[in-house]
Amino acid sequence: MDKPKFKFQLYKQLQANIPNIYTEAKKAADEIGIPQDIRGKFGLTGAISGCPAPLREDIMKAGEKGALEVIPLAKLMDEIREIVKDVYGDEYDAAATSTCEAGIWVCYDVLFSPPLLGRGDNYRARYIAPYEKHLHHQGSYGRPFPPRFKDIFADRGSTAGELGFYGKRQNNLDTLIVPLAGAKYDVHGIKYHPVPLLTGVDPRASIEKIAFHAESHKSMLTGITSLGYETPGYGYGVKDEQGTPVLQKLLGQLAHKYDIPYVVDNAWGLPFVGFDPRKTGADVVVYSMDKATGAATSGLIIGKEEYMVPIRRALGLHGDRWGTTASYGKAAYVTFDPGKEALLTQIQALKVLRDNPEKLTGPVDELEKIVKEEFSKLPAGLLEGIIISKSYNSTAVEINYEGTWKNGAAGIPIFSIEDMYAGSNILQSGLAQMGIIPTVAYDGNIYISPGLGTTDEAGGLLDRETRYAVRGLVRLIEIVCKYAGIL
């Protein structure tokens, strides 16, 4: 296959060869020996909302047992609060939601957006969102500022316009998007868009940029947000002596300088393991409890009591009007109620994380070993520039390959998040041809985690199934690189 002269031609060549890539991928699945009976039933992560992992045996039993009992929901919510306070201390509180996105929505509306009531025109507010990965999650709740980002979410998601990401924008709220120092925002993909390449992020130079914008907009500034991940591919590779990402600590310090909340989206993260709000200075952290944690579909908000009181009020959880310490009533966001069974599974999942976190971190160690062994079989020219690291926070192994593009030479093709939504991310759609359910594999970064047909009922890693999935990914990378003219 010819080696293209220009980058856009590489992706044009890949697009023209999608049928050939799919044909080779199907053939490769047979060569690898992936059994027919597991094809389409296993994959590279159980932490995707669209295809969540089966629940662990202990989670299932807790949900089934409690489902047959009469339990007030306020009692279950208080039990979650007690577990959170056991770990983080009495100054923290919690509130469960139907999803992580619901948790982010209520946090931003309560803490970042201007009030609706009162005479006269409403004022505008702004929150800061670093230009990082998954920006459509944490950065899409206000009108983008500066104007060059006005259309950044136009094609993202399955629906455009008022019923798509534009419809998430909250009342008179702006998102101040700040590119990170040391990051690259090169254009890649068949759906040719800028992608955040973050392994080179300089946290101290980045906070200087962010602080400049904070000072410039201080009269409107109401909050700062970021992701809660801790890996190089997400821009958090520089850590202090305790292993805490320096950039997250600096964001917390900056927020507190302006007396505004630092709200962290840790969707693909574990409570109590990895990201620690006490070390980063985060005021509120939001989790997707069905991703890394393994509970039923639901979200969880953990934060300092000062900020959790209005959040819990908005959810109808924070006390009846005649005076109680907790309630389960009606409020603005009662629609975000997760329900009894989700609460039961959250309680069990949180107990395991508090008392026996090795149940979730142990398989990550095994997975890292398998990933390194299988990726070592790539041709040497492709291996150079790949960074493999594990994340207990996300119970995942990260494969970052943006370093394969160096000195002006083309590397392993990078697909944009727009490719994912357009169906033109071949590192995802090609895996489906092999019978492997794909994972997050865009922006030069791939996350792999246990759970989707690769663990037993107790959560232990299954070596055979895991190797099939990782081996399929490695083989697909080789095929894609061949048609890109790199091999």
Outline the structure in words.
The structure is a single chain. β2 and β3 (51-52) form a beta hairpin. The chain is an alpha/beta fold and 487 residues long. The longest helix is centred in the C-terminal third of the chain and has 21 residues, at 463-483. The mean pLDDT is 96. It has an 8-stranded mixed sheet with strand order 4-13-12-11-10-5-7-6. The chain has helices at 7-16, 18-32, 57-67, 73-88, 100-111, 135-138, 203-216, 246-257, 277-280, 305-315, 340-355, 358-375, 380-383, 417-422, 426-434, 463-483, and strands spanning 42-43, 47-48, 51-52, 92-97, 125-131, 143-145, 173-179, 187-188, 193-194, 221-227, 262-265, 284-288, 299-304, 387-391, 396-400, 436-437, 441-442, 445-448. α2 runs antiparallel to α16 and α3 crosses α11. It is built from 16 helices and 18 strands. Helices cover 38% and strands 15% of the residues. It has 2 domains: 7-55 and 358-483, Aspartate Aminotransferase, domain 1 (Alpha-Beta Complex); 57-355, Type I PLP-dependent aspartate aminotransferase-like (Major domain) (Aspartate Aminotransferase, domain 2, 3-Layer(aba) Sandwich). The N and C termini lie close together (8 Å).
